[in-house]
Amino acid sequence: MKQLCVVLGLLGALGGCSMVSQGPESLTEGDVGGDRFPKDTSVEEMQAAVDDAVEGIEIIKGVESASSKLVQGERPDGLSPLPDQPQQGVTSWHGTISVDLERNVPDLGRLATEVEEVLSDASETVSTGGTLHVPEDDHGPRATLSFLRTDRSNEIMPPEELASSLELLRDIDGAMSAFVSQGDPVAAVGVDDPSLWPDVAAQLRELPDLGFGALTAVSIAASTDSAAPVSRAGTPTGRFNQLRIDATSPSPAFLQVLAELANDDDVVRLSYTGAKPESPASTELSLNTAPLERPSLIVEVEGEAALERVTAVLTSVDDVVTAVPTGVSRAEFDVFDVLSDDAGPAGELAGFVGLPLGSQVPDEQVVSAPDSATLVLDPGAADGRVAADRVLVTNLLDAAGAAAGIRGQPDVGVAECAQEQGEHAEGEVTIPIFEVASSADAAFAAITAAWVASGYIPVSSAKVGLAVYASSDPLSPGATTIAIRESAAGIRIYASSVCVATEF
Fold first, then answer.
1. Same structural domain for residues 344 and 437?
2. Rounded distance between C-alpha atoms, residue 473 and residue 70, angstroms
3. In a shared domain, residues 379 and 353
4. Residue 152: what pLDDT?
5. Which end of the chain is more exposed for a tag (fewer CB within 10 A), N or C?
6. 490 vs 499: CA distance, rounded Å
7. pLDDT cut 70: percent of the chain above it
8. Using one digit for the tens of pLDDT, what is the confidence trace for 392-429?
9. What is the largest CA-CA distance in the chain?
10. Which helix (H) or strand (E) is 252 found in, with range?
11. What is the pLDDT of residues 109-118, one digit of tens each?
């Protein structure tokens, strides 16, 4: 909940007139955060770049208005100061542009792409982000699309796919708001009551994109007060609960338990965080076998009796209710009595859902993805093998388009393997199947049938909607691991070759 509140609070503060914080007339490369910006960039030049961006955005079809801020901050420079000296820092500047859209914009993807292009141009002078505020209209509730990058940035989503994800969330029955971010894999949907959680979660899990990209996970926020005001970002500003779901956790049955607890008169706040979302690059390309982070539940209650009663409910939940697919651990919980001044057992009880208090940490993390392999060669042979694998991976991705009847553009490169164990070829392609067909089923089947005919075998995957294929020989040339899924943009395929190292 804290993560969601911080993001939405930031978005709500982006409106208002253009403003510049006090600062020096000119800044050097180090002052603005590195060699990305030219030397001697003045505050006036940065402000001019942001102002030009506002003007460029306001003429885009579908934009109602735009406003900006240029703000100054300070970050540590990484150097350790001498004793008795203050921490050294580096001045940094950042522009933010808030964009209000007209009602019933017919092509949100086109508009988002044009706005991002303007933001990118401004970022050549000063780092510039922005948000699109979509009003409630015939297409759905109010919504926010953010181009603000965060420390959690993983896959940077293309604007059109980001807009498509937002439109999917706006179509959810019961949604009163929606939020997606280019730099954050956790989207958000606002509802007016926790009792809607099970139904909204079921609709989200029917989306082909859930578990990937901007919809790697979705936080569902719900007000416990139907009269609570709504913020600019479309979320309740009064007391509210939230849960973050992904494609598998929490289970539908446990969702019902959480919804009932959130509506309990003695519960002040409930926050459930499902398994930690991972970057598509790690989960789909290399199929990282590291276990997911344990789900967590925080419940704040009023009174000692409520503390004991809610804890009893959580410890007595049957495993059948909480069970989810392989790879997700049993959730841990913390229940706090907000009326208690005592620390420890008197004011807090912690444990694991479905286990008695005092139970040892359960060892339940099991992942079914295949183990990675490494091929060790001399330096010259290693370079040649990786180059050859890159060609073969490109050919495989291109052949998938031939099988589907419409080709995409493969993007294949060379990347470092996990734990720095050599390099391998990896790449992806999006096949725009919906340009020629209303369903992806036939093309999906044709592509995977071709792989099986070539000797690839299907392997299990903990992600719903993701099909994984592996070579019978983990050291074979070309793609040794392939993952395929359907998305709003078409059929997305990821492929990687064996890791090649010169020493191990």
1. no
2. 55
3. no
4. 40
5. C
6. 29
7. 74
8. 999 999 999 999 999 999 999 998 886 667 899 999 99
9. 71
10. helix 252-262
11. 999 999 999 9
363 and 341 share one domain? yes
Do 458 and 477 touch, CB atoms closer than 8 A? no
The residue out of 367, 384, 411 marking a domain boundary is 367
Is 177 domain-assigned? Answer: no
Q: Is residue 439 part of a domain?
A: yes
Q: Domain boundary residue among 367, 391, 422?
A: 367
Contact 388, 401 (CB under 8 A): no
CA–CA gap between residue 271 and residue 276 (Å, rounded): 14
Would you say residue 435 lies in a domain? Answer: yes
Residues 6+ apart with CB under 8 A from 234: 141, 142, 143, 144, 176, 177, 178, 179, 190
Between 87 and 490, whose confidence is greater? 490
Question: Which residues make Cβ contacts (< 8 Å) with residue 412, sequence separation at least 6?
Answer: 390, 393, 394, 397, 425, 426, 427, 428, 495
Residue 184 maps to a domain: no
What is the band of 491 on the pLDDT scale with cuts at 50, 70, 90? very high
492 and 431 together in one domain: yes
Structure tokens at 356: 């008695």
Residues 459 and 407 in one domain: yes
Are 100 and 133 contacting, i.e. CB atoms less than 8 angstroms apart? Answer: yes
Which residue, chain included where needed, has tokens 């969601």? 4
Which pLDDT tens digit goes with each residue over 174-214?
999 999 998 788 899 999 999 999 999 999 988 877 877 78
Q: Is 202 helix (H, G, I), strand (E, B) or coil?
A: helix
- Domain of residue 403: give its range: 374-501
Considering the domain architecture, whether residues 407 and 464 belong to the same structural domain is answered as yes
Task: State the SS3 of 335-389.
Answer: EEECCCCCCHHHCEEEEECCCCCCCCCCCCCCCCCCCCCEEECCHHHHHHHHHHH
C-alpha to C-alpha distance for 436 and 448, rounded to whole angstroms: 19
Contact 481, 493 (CB under 8 A): no
User: What pTM was estimated for this model as a whole?
Assistant: 0.67
| Whether residue 390 sits in one domain with residue 361 | no
Domain count, the chain: 2
